[in-house]
């Protein structure tokens, strides 16, 4: 192994490299690292390092970061997703210590020596001229290969364009990149392609799946290679992850988790103590050593399953391709169950990322394995495997009309409001760089600038026609109109990938509907319908459908989702009770509710932009209640008391309602605040109040009881009731044969203890 002293670098650079190595406990450099340092990545200028997974690219990026810091420069370290921000911040803090400030929150680009952020947030900050992002000295581009994908590729491309517009130095690291010279030319970067092979080799196999179902082929492949686990199975569709995991579990191939693990209790703790039918199915699979995850599973459940996989408690995991990036777990064998998508082969770059999840260097395997299931295994092997595979070139993501219109609108909204200024920004984009290659606009012998001028003219004309912008002929410029400003602010504050026409549709509804006529149900239905946030529901039982019809909506997926959220989730009924009353599987409702809450919050910018609209008084409360799943009278308790979630509130309310009729001489239908204060006043002291709650109410311990007591002492409950008229359009009365969650109100499951017993 090389050491810094063996490198062809300056003494100062040797010291920088040694400092990073010492912080991480490394005693020597890998070939790729020595290759990159000898190639001059610590010298002036932009650089791009292409190297196989596990060959030490990250250390080179941290050395480049420290090299800039020692010169007094400010650096932004960019990663593809918010999930990776905290991990990267912690890794940098290992060597930054107290010498350098590492920021990842609000004001990061202004305040930190190193700002750890996503590509999207950097791009938006530069465009808006916020937080001093334009004055940064260097940008680290981690997992640069995600520029291939449509999901994050646009943000990465635009972040680089923004950096090039502001002469910010660039250092990118990538595992897969075919046209590295072209990308390097666009970035004005020196390209370093490491000759080192992957540290842990992967053996690839094409498996014939033409004569049996994919499920059966997966089962047989794992049976034939049972000693090569743990297994990670990539599936195209969410439903396939479930059905294939179920098929594997039914075979009884694996031993399952340790006997001392109570997975039922552990999972119950993650889901408010209440298990739906889907949760119980997941448990059955886990007990057989198999799990599945996909984007619709609540985050707590996904983490629970992934932790079991990391700990070796389950041996096979089926998943959608969302795990292909940044997943570093003890996978030894990858199975690509679907190498075609809608009849066409997936991209080579996608396959390389999937296969690369096997045998990560930190796991210590001598080799890994990847099995590709295909109807024509010879054709699949030639396409995907070395030495015959050929990676695709990277293509711009802003050549389609929707993306180009979004870029045009964003530029105008942030002061790049003339054709000349827009051209100046776009000149630094991959889109402009590739014009001669892809002929992105028009087929004639026009120059690139002529093509760009024509494209901008068409884009601005559409935005003018649709009322997003207006044209100022006197100064040959543009300005955003109400709709345009609302659209951009919504775009910057939401997680949904909304089309301009969808935002316009919501804007027009808000502008044309009298604010006093808008119910929370109406608002939810509009958001769900316009931004594609409906659950996949085919039918519904019970009273929901007639109640929807009474309130002006059909029992479509959008209507059912709005009704479930409004009358069940926001009324704090348990997921178990929701399933019993409606026949709908609510397992995915918590995750959907969080995304819906974020989108409802972002729509305030659209509403505020509409001249005839007014944000409803209950809007902020709606955002909170959709996220937390609580009633209006519990908002203060849930907001101000740490860890006071919907289950604790439900058990607390059930106990207080019983006490109201038996001891307090209060109507049990009173608000939670009234019940709490009535019960508090009836006890002899704060200590007795806390003791009763901690001993009698499920999920309320000593700390939570004390927090409730302090909350009552420092708050009054006379706030305006923001519930709208449809709040109680659908009520469910607790019944003895109903959900245990709604009738079990004490830790013993019996009657509440009288105060005289204390």
Automatic annotation (TrEMBL):
The keyword Nucleotide-binding applies. Gene3D superfamilies: P-loop containing nucleotide triphosphate hydrolases. Residues 729-758 are annotated as: Disordered. It comes from the Archaea. Keywords: ATP-binding, Helicase, Hydrolase, Nucleotide-binding. Pfam families: DEAD, Helicase_C. Residues 217-412 form the Helicase C-terminal domain. GO terms for molecular function: ATP binding; catalytic activity, acting on DNA; helicase activity; hydrolase activity. Residues 38-195 form the Helicase ATP-binding domain. The keyword Hydrolase applies. This is DEAD/DEAH box helicase. It comes from Halohasta litorea.
